[in-house]
Every structure is written in C-alpha cells, then in structure tokens.
# Entry
Amino acid sequence: MSNSQAARRRGLLLVISSPSGAGKTSLSRRLISEHPDLTLSVSATTRTPRPGEADGREYWFVTAAAFRAMVADEAFLEWAEVHEHAYGSPRAPIMRHLEDGRDVLFDIDWQGAQAIARSAPEDTVRVFILPPTMADLARRLHARAQDPEDVIARRLGRARGEIAHWREYDYVIVNDDFDLAYAQLSSIYHAERLRRVRNPWIARVVQSLLDEA
Ligand code: 5GP
# Structure
C-alpha cells in the first residue's frame, strides 16, 4: 500500500487474548510476519525474561520501580497485573504507528482488551483464542519447558478465569489445527481492514463516481 493510501486509512487495534499456551503468540507472530502494515505492540513487563526472549522483541523487561514511573507518567495506554507481574502497553509507539497509517496488534489479557476497547471502541477488534481441551493446554505449557512446574500450575489455574471472558470478544477461534486457526485469524484481519469506517477515502471515490455521471 502506498503512503498516501495508508494515510487515508484508519488503523485498527487488533487485540488477541487467550490463556497462556493456547497459541496466541505463534499466531500473532505469523500474522505480523506476513503483513508489513501490522506492527506488534511490545509491552513492558516486570517479569524476568524466559530463555530465548530478548529485551525489546518479546517485551521491554523493566524493574518494578521503572514500571511504576511509567504508570505515573501515563506512559501506558493500558496496564494490568497478570500472574503476579505488571504488564503494560506503551502509548507513544502505538500512537506513532496509527499516525503512520499502520495497524497495531496487541497480545494482551482480557483486562487489557477491555481497556483498549473502552478507549477506542470503533478502532478495536478483539479476538479470543481457545485451546481445544484443557489437557491440550497443559500439554502445550509443559512442552514449552520454559517455566518451572509451580508457574505452569498457576498458569493452568488462571486459564479458567481467562476463558470466562470469551463473550467479551468479537471473534473466537479454537486453535486445534494451527494452519486452520491461522487462516481464520488472517480472514478476520483482512475483512476488518475492509470495513467502511476504516476507509474514509471511499467517500471521495464515491463522490467522483457520482460527479462523472
Ligand atoms: P506471559 O508472561 O506468558 O508472556 O504473559 C502473561 C499474560 O500477560 C498473557 O496473557 C499476555 O497476553 C498478557 N500480557 C502481556 N502484555 C500485556 C499488556 O501489555 N497488558 C495486558 N493487560 N496484558 C498483557
């Protein structure tokens, strides 16, 4: 898409939530890698990095004091406590991406999804990813082998609470088969981008069509 077209498009906020281990991160990363106009909102968190995670890529890893300072500066569009740690979506890069005509993807929990939808109801699309079964979720958390047993147990315990919010989302995908779930997510994104409200430039096309007649 050319810059001038992008500038005439209204960016969307694509919020994806799920219990940990349901595959939302893999789905999100693939959607981003295949769509240059879509950017990930990299959250700040007080949790420690898992093996393989890099500062500024998966998260900005910050101290509790630095996080509190960002909250005080109103540097977050939303923030929440999840699994005993604080997580927040930094406001400035999000606003910059939207001004550049890009879409922003959020890999955040139900509290963040609610907050973003409240702050920009017309621009927010919420997608919830479900695991096919709880046994499958447990298997995926163990296969990830990045968290100690007690952390996995806590994440499983929290999964029910997260799933309870499924009705607050516009779309729900059951991630049984990754490629199918990805195709569904991609369809949602493509259709949502085509919504009339996100494409105000169409009014000018219509005007010139009518002027031609
Ligand atoms: P994890 O520690 O497994 O990376 O993430 C734990 C949970 O926090 C996930 O459900 C994730 O989506 C959520 N999360 C990550 N970043 C944010 C954020 O900026 N805001 C909110 N509200 N939740 C977040």
Summary: The beta strands are 13-17, 38-40, 44-45, 60-61, 76-82, 85-90, 103-107, 124-130, 171-174. The radius of gyration is 19 Å. Residues 3-41+103-206 form a domain with the Rossmann fold fold (CATH 3.40.50.300). Residues 20, 43, 47, 78, 80, 82-83, 87-89, 107-109, 111-112 surround guanosine-5'-monophosphate (CB under 6 Å).
